[in-house]
Amino acid sequence: MANMLVRNGADPEMEEVYAYGIECTLSTLFILVLLMISGFILRKPVHMLIFIAAWLPLRMLVGGAHANTHWACTLVSVGLGTVSVMFCAFLNRMYIAFLMMMPLSVVCCVILFLIAPVIHKNHPISMRRYRKTRVIARIYTAAECAVVILIVLSGSRMIAPAFMVFFTTTVLAVIGWFSKNTDKTFMTVRKQ
Questions:
Q1: How far apart (Å, rounded) are the C-alpha atoms in residues 35 and 41?
Q2: What is the structure's pLDDT at 187?
Q3: What pTM was computed for the model?
């Protein structure tokens, strides 16, 4: 596909960049399709749609732990999404778990507010982009936390997938934060 772009007038020096972008896009689409199939198999397609809609932008903004290959990324992403949606039924049945989702969401929000974005060495960005992403990640995190709290207060059982997005993204961000693959140059910026 990248070769075809170059043959049709795209910059030949950018062919590898095009190939990588196409590969990432196809990998993401493959993950989304597998997640939706998983949602239908679990008979929870709405829960899975909520999970995907909240998880994808938050994960892209927050960063964190990344797999070393597209296949590992696919396995981890589909596994996390599937387990999260399966766990939703358990969370919705337990009243105490339902009540704990609001304070746990606030804890996740604080953690993400402090450490996001977690930049992986394989995905370097400029300081300017880092600062912009940090602001956007904080706004999105606060907005998602507010949505989770509103859902809890409304008594809706759709809280579980929204909470699981927050929880899994926070876990991946914390793992990424302590990973040797994290770009540590941005950690000094946080203290300024």
A1: 10
A2: 56
A3: 0.80
